[in-house]
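Quick check before the chapter quiz. The format below is the same one you will see on the exam, so make sure you can read both the input and the output lines.
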Amino acid sequence: MSYVDTLRQWDTAATFVDKKDFSEALKIFLSIQDPNSKIHFNIGCLHLLNQDLDAAEKAFDCSIRKDEHLAVAFFQRGITFYKKTRYEESLADFQQAFKALRSNHLIDYKALGLRYILYACDVLHNVALAEAQLGHWEKAHENLVKALNYKIEAKLNMIDKALDSTLKQKLFKPVEFPKNVLFKPNKHYVAQLEEKDYLGKAKVVASVIPQDAFSGFAPLQPQVDDGPTDGPKEPEVLRALEGEPHTVLFEFVPETSDELAVVPGNIVFVLQKGDDNWAYVIFNERRGLVPYNYLERLEISLASKQNGGTSGSQSREPPTRPERIPGLTPSGSSGDLQPMAAQSTDNSYIVKVRYTFTFVVSVAPGCSYETLIEKISEKLNLSSASITLSLTSEATEESIINANTDMESVWSRASGRHITLWCSTKDQTDGKPQNVIHLVALHSYESSNPEDLNFQQGDTITFLSRVNQDWMEGQCNGKTGIFPAPFVEEVPVNGQ
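Here is the expected output.
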């Protein structure tokens, strides 16, 4: 079934829900092939409405498998287990829902098509109720006291009543998800189902900024006609960029019409960041949601050299660019690069390590320090004793990670199974660098690609790794990036 067909059936089923024809809506939802996590959630809610608890449990299982960060799905499955008097499983799901909130007071699902706000105090209220059902009255009281830290004015009376009940060791009512509220597809896409041109139209976008470093389409780029010029054009109108520029770190495949497909290296503009860790972005004139932890803030400089013009430009064409550069990591002593998946296919944690260049390693959840440092030392081809890891860019006593560090506290800082660490090394031969290869630029190289390294003829470049036969990665003037190998040649260290 195509995505357009799925979208059409999803919208039809939502219409029947609005008419309170739940049986017909459920029938349509069940006919959708390979439904996404939100549609599975809708199916579970309709089964729960019909008191078909076994079917509801299976639907919420599928929703969570599709999106393990969907807190509201854990919340609803917890309600299902509670109704089935499986209180231990209910407690585990409510606790998982609270964990998915990541210390936020609430998650507003409106941007994802669900008119519902999941409050942390409501989740803790149900955690306390499950503890009470298990006879753990002290824990129930503790969770309700904790809920007071996340309270909003409208919920205060409810929490106070529950606290009073726990003191008398009496049960209280759970907070339940409202009836008739389901995930709906994006209205904008539904309205254009018949006329939407998914391929889009070709558009030429030209910048008035000489040597512009921006890559991609900007949401708004006013142009001016200065008439014929004999020399290099200077910027008289700066680009009006909407939103904050970010670089995409990991590939994201959308499951719904509200989400946007992006790959590593894309530059997107964040229009709004929600408390649920999703960002509403614009990319190539398309708007949608992507996980914010897949992005990294990017500083774009629009300044041009006032007296440089276009002098010093490269004197030859670079070779064909390698594909999917941002997902590469160094491997082995040869310095060759090999592609690495941007997202883990299992429950592994993705550790982005900032060194003189940035690379990625994949480790098992909750792995030990010894396993982590061994992985990193293999990537750098250095002994683990010469490597220092830290949680921040500055290796302080509080941020350094070593064999004595509580790794559970380190992994608790991960967001969506992704964490960034900083790495530094100490030389083992009187502080002198080892095996440093220097290159000299035979030609100037300038590129608008953010992952490229720009340099001028005669510049000295420190070699980091080889991407393929035609491209290298290096460092020059404090910046790191890739560049065409034919543009440089190797020189002895003492020949600088």
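If your answer matched, good. The first helix runs from residue 3 to 18.
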